[in-house]
Amino acid sequence: AAGGEPVAPEFKQDISRVGVVGTGTMASGIALVFAQSGYDVVFVGRSQAKLDGVLAYIGKTLDRSVAKGKLDEGGKDAILGRLTGAVEREALGDVDIVVEAIAEDLDLKTELYRDLDRICKPGAILATTTSSLPITKLGEATSRPEAVIGMHFFNPAPVMKLVEVVTTNDTAADVDETVKALCANVGKVAVSCGDRAGFIVNCLLFPYLNDAVKLHESGIEIDTIDAAIKEQAGFPMGPFELLDVVGNDVSLAIQKELYGEFKEPGFAPAELLEKLVADGKLGRKTGEGFHTY
Ligand code: 3HC
């Protein structure tokens, strides 16, 4: 209420079982976030090897917490015990919410949403982590656009507190509120956002990252720029370190989306960003991007 205390969001429906679709960096981190907070998690990937990859990341992350004395072996086993992998989407039939974090490809996601609509029980919320695709279109692929919403986590999901909760014109108010309550329950800070290119954070962050690449193209060393930003702005990472964490393919896709939407000449993707992606130098995940790992 204006001028009053902010009202804490309330669960409008019970959420105890969470589905996660995808086996990449974001999906793995998100599965951990929910399992760590006591939710039963069913995560779905295309092969057993990919499911094993998720568990390997989670196991490694939890081992680090144990080594630091932040978690004991019993706590670790309890978290692992709440995670179930599946190669069949049918395993999502009884979850209360699905958080989808597959590749940023509208055709792939549309196909998935049609399936989720068929498979998931009535009332289940269908959340997407897309950072660059129109969520309205995903809703239109289902018979329940009121249940479709964005939950835009940041990388690394277990560490970054922010989640942009993105509603379309079709999203039900109760779904919005439930998702915000869920964010609070897993220790995240939710901000509301409409279904517009870049939402809030990427709309500001990626032009800055793209400009950093152009600044380097004009002759300034990568390390100099990274160091200057860290010292001056107190950012935890310089722009090139961050680009390598996010993945140059992801950054390029987001920058193209912003350029297409806003048509600002300065938003045109930097040539070097395009070149690194073409060369498969995607950042940390491939061992080389702007820096080498
Ligand atoms: N998974 C899980 N936990 C991780 C992790 C990961 N991948 N990386 C780091 N951590 C944990 C560490 O275990 C440690 O935990 P602790 O506090 O319990 O001990 C904590 O995070 C801090 O890690 P480190 O001490 O190793 O290193 P740093 O202090 O340098 O932190 C960082 C690493 C959190 C990645 C920090 O550098 C940072 O905040 N960087 C900026 C990240 C950022 O801006 N992300 C947003 C990108 S934009 C985006 O995601 C949008 C999308 O649409 C592209």
Instruction: Give the rounded overall mean pLDDT.
Output: 96
H/E element order: EHEHHEEHEHEEHEHHHHH
- What order do the strands of the largest sheet run in, or round the barrel if closed? 3-2-1-4-5-6-7-8
The fraction of residues assigned to DSSP E strands is: 5-15%
Would you identify the regions where 5 or more consecutive residues have pLDDT less than 50?
Answer: none
Distance between the termini: 49 Å
User: What share of the residues lie within helices?
Assistant: 40-55%
Count of DSSP H/I helices: 11
- Main sheet makeup: 8 strands, mixed
Secondary-structure-based class equals alpha/beta
Number of DSSP strands?
8
Shape: globular
Radius of gyration: 19 Å
Q: What small molecules does this complex bind?
A: 3-hydroxybutanoyl-coenzyme A
Organism: Nocardioides panacisoli
Domain 3-hydroxyacyl-CoA dehydrogenase C-terminal: 198-293
Keywords: Oxidoreductase
Domain 3-hydroxyacyl-CoA dehydrogenase NAD binding: 18-195
Describe the structure in your own words.
This protein is α/β, with parallel strands linked by helices. The chain is built from eleven helices and eight strands. It has an eight-stranded mixed beta sheet, with helices on both faces. The longest helix has 20 residues, at 48-67. It is globular, with a radius of gyration of 19 Å. It starts with 16 loop residues before the first strand and ends in a 15-residue tail after the last helix. The structure holds 3-hydroxybutanoyl-coenzyme A. Residues 18-195 form the 3-hydroxyacyl-CoA dehydrogenase NAD binding domain. This is 3-hydroxyacyl-CoA dehydrogenase. Residues 198-293 form the 3-hydroxyacyl-CoA dehydrogenase C-terminal domain. Pathway: Lipid metabolism; butanoate metabolism. Keywords: Oxidoreductase.
